[in-house]
Amino acid sequence: MNTIWYRRFLTLTLLGLILISTTITAGAQSGQQVRITQVDNSRFPNVTVYVSVSDSAGNPVGVDPATIQISENGQLMQPTDVRGGGDVAGGEATPVTTVLVIDISGSMEKGNKISAAKEAAKAYVNGMQGGDQVGIVAFDSNVYEVQPITSDKSALTSAIDGLRTGSDTAMYNAILKAAVSLENVQGRKTVLVLSDGMDNQSSSTEDNIVDSVGPSGLTVSAIGFGDPSLGGQGGIDEAGLKSLTGRTGGQYAYVTDAATLTNLYQQYGQSYQSEYAITYVTPSTTRDGVNRGLTVSLSAAGVSAEGKYNPGGVLPEVTGQSWSLFAAIALGLLVLLAVPLIFMGGGKLLGGVGGGRKGRIKLASSSGGSSPGPNRARGRVKLR
Fold first, then answer.
1. How far out from the chain centre does Cα 124 lie?
2. 133 and 2 part of one domain
3. 3-state class of 331 per DSSP?
4. For residue 102, what are the domain limits?
5. Which residues contact 360 (CB under 8 A, 6 or more apart)?
6. What's the predicted TM-score (pTM) here?
7. Which of 10, 126, 203, 287 is the most buried (most CB within 10 A)?
């Protein structure tokens, strides 16, 4: 009898362990996700890392900022400032500047996609909070800056209402224009692209955009509006959009109806506003042009994300302690350059002091007599 009860006990224990293991696995699969969305080193050596925390569905999740840990090149950093979290964490919203890049090619007229795009863009504008700014860039075969970056919601809404469809698709040109317009903008900034087709008119490429953004700059997110399974010009350039958003730290999704499109725009806006801005001082204070590896982890959830940034600088900077050495080297180079000039000037001076007639070579020929022959009128060297 004891043996039977022992076997039952083992069976129940094993079942319990399996149940617990399944629960942990399910929790990990549906748990929190963390992403590095932007690195701002415009105030280097102060570095600000923007961090997004979301659930598996992409909805923002609030966490205790103390559980967010940042390491640079494997070394744990100590934050000097932590902001953000938005409504989901009971904190302040992170101000964000967004350029909405909207496809107005001829295909957007089919199925009244242009109307859906307008409503979604206006919903994004309506969700703006204090400090947020938005610009509007539209594209068909050409690129149009419909509305420069502003916080004026009425101006943005009017610009969106005025959109009209055109002809072909120059998406990469439009994204590059949006990226350039954000170059001098401080803080969190992003490009959000809506397209329903394949680029067939751009002179710019994905590489041009990535080079403009740099390894740490703004993010480019994209929404494909339509069916990605369709081939040719009737389908979404899903591979291109995924590649671009992946290389710039953005997100990609596709939708097939107006309601989902509006919801996705709003979700992206709330996600931006709920990000955490964590600032630290890098221990490597020289702009040496070398990429720095970043790791952001949530200590409570056991998840992490990798990223990088580049401090800039083509040549290594001269630190304050090296100025005396730098000055000595520079002075030495100037002396080396001056030595030949000194000797040249001294040689001329000595030649002038020696006086007397100068030796020179003169080419002379005999005159008179008959026509020149082999032994006559030959040039000769005469030293005078």
1. 23
2. no
3. helix
4. 96-273
5. 383, 384
6. 0.73
7. 287
